[in-house]
Amino acid sequence: MKIAVFGATGTTGVIFVEQALKENYQLKLYCRPQSIVKLGELSSHASVEIIQGGFDDDFTPAVRGVAVVVSFLGPGLNWPSGNPLEKVMMKIMQTMRNEGVTRFVTMGTPTIADPLDKNVFKYRILVSSLKLLQPNVYNDMVATGNLFKSGNYDDLDWTVARICFLKSSAQPKEHIHVGYVGDGQGSLVSQRVHWVKFILTEILENHWIRKMPFITSI
Ligand SMILES: NC(=O)c1ccc[n+]([C@@H]2O[C@H](COP(=O)([O-])OP(=O)(O)OC[C@H]3O[C@@H](n4cnc5c(N)ncnc54)[C@H](OP(=O)(O)O)[C@@H]3O)[C@@H](O)[C@H]2O)c1
């Protein structure tokens, strides 16, 4: 199976690429030219094809011929206004439609509220703080969530894999919990390897299509 990966040069993206290659996937990695170096030897792996480009370039070469699209893209420091993440999600999904690719697993956070979430203080404080301190990030995450909730992309098999504070233990002591925000079992921490494991399991099992699970480590 061939997977297109957006955000492959990020911390989680690299972990995903390593694990997906161990599991014998073929990968197309959409990367900014200056960031390819972050992939190290992975960039020349026989099962890796690098497609160079940024948000403003054509995504078609990355999406053409794949079975699944995975995205680790999300807001970083000094995130601009104008909801660039929402726009890039729309562009990825329009390209998927053009290319007849239906399966999409992408990053979300508790800022994207799901009707199945419970209103729990610690997550509410988190989201309120983000709204106050990083309004561009908050607005973009809400707008991105609304895209999926609108029903306008329900011809695609999307999953918004929501995570909380990311950690990078190679062999975490915790185990993975997949549920909803405030379900009484989740935490505030998502180990990157658990997020990656969720995605690689989900693209085979398709349990969470058109859903927004919350993946944490407990
Ligand atoms: N860290 C946390 O606790 C936390 C919490 C909630 C959500 N998140 C989100 O989770 C995602 C993964 O986290 P991470 O720490 O693994 O990410 P990361 O190391 O920051 O990597 C982000 C990836 O997105 C790409 N990207 C970001 N802005 C871009 C732009 N304007 N144009 C093209 N590519 C762009 C980066 O490309 P380059 O390599 O070219 O820069 C990189 O591949 C992030 O998107 C972040 O917003 C993180």
From TrEMBL:
According to UniProt, the name of this protein is: NAD(P)-binding domain-containing protein
- NAD(P)-binding domain location is 7-183
Query: What are the leading ranks of the lineage?
Result: Eukaryota, Metazoa, Spiralia, Gnathifera, Rotifera
List the SUPFAM superfamilies hit by this protein, alphabetically: NAD(P)-binding Rossmann-fold domains (SSF51735)
Species this protein is from = Adineta ricciae (Rotifer)
Looking up InterPro entries in the UniProt record yields:
NAD(P)-bd_dom, NAD(P)-bd_dom_sf, Polyketide_Oxido-like
What the entry lists under Gene3D superfamilies is as follows: NAD(P)-binding Rossmann-like Domain
Q: Which GO terms describe its molecular function?
A: biliverdin reductase [NAD(P)H] activity; riboflavin reductase (NADPH) activity
On the tree of life, the source organism's domain of life is: Eukaryota
Q: Which PANTHER family match?
A: FLAVIN REDUCTASE (NADPH)
